[in-house]
Amino acid sequence: MAGAFKAYIAYQLVGRELPFPERAVDFVLELQRGDGSFGEDPRSTPKPLTIHWDSLWDLRALNQQLRNSYRFDDIREAGNRCATYLLERHLKSDGGFSYQRDTCIAVHNSVTVSPALPIGDTIGTGMTLKCFAYADEWNQM
Questions:
Q1: Rounded Cα distance, 130 and 16, in Å
Q2: pLDDT (tens digit, 9 = 90+) per residue, 32-82?
Q3: E strand or H helix that includes residue 129
Q4: pTM for the whole thing?
Q5: 141 and 72 in contact (C-beta within 8 Å)?
Q6: Are the C-beta atoms of 93 and 43 separated by less than 8 Å?
């Protein structure tokens, strides 16, 4: 998902449309699991938030290019399901959201920034709020 995200940003930066947008929407939607997460491996740890944010960002870019004309109801539902997942799995008791599912981010860019505590962090909170904004945008249409 990170590769698609980076490629899509590159296309946008040079002002080109994303290739095969319908197939890309199908691909991203296929990654969503029953619990609303996107492509997490339940055996892996840590479980970072990036794949969820990347997936919704990709759906937003693709949907904008397609002008809500392809699987829009499915995209809206995917955003809502992901938002529910984030509330259930990444919201911490301090009101923030954690980048990793169980704890705040302890190491960022090879720098230890915190012990791994069950609290929110700025990266997780920022990404989650963007995910909520995308879902809210779709719910307003």
A1: 24
A2: 999 999 986 666 666 789 999 999 999 999 999 999 999 999 999 999 999
A3: helix 122-139
A4: 0.91
A5: yes
A6: no
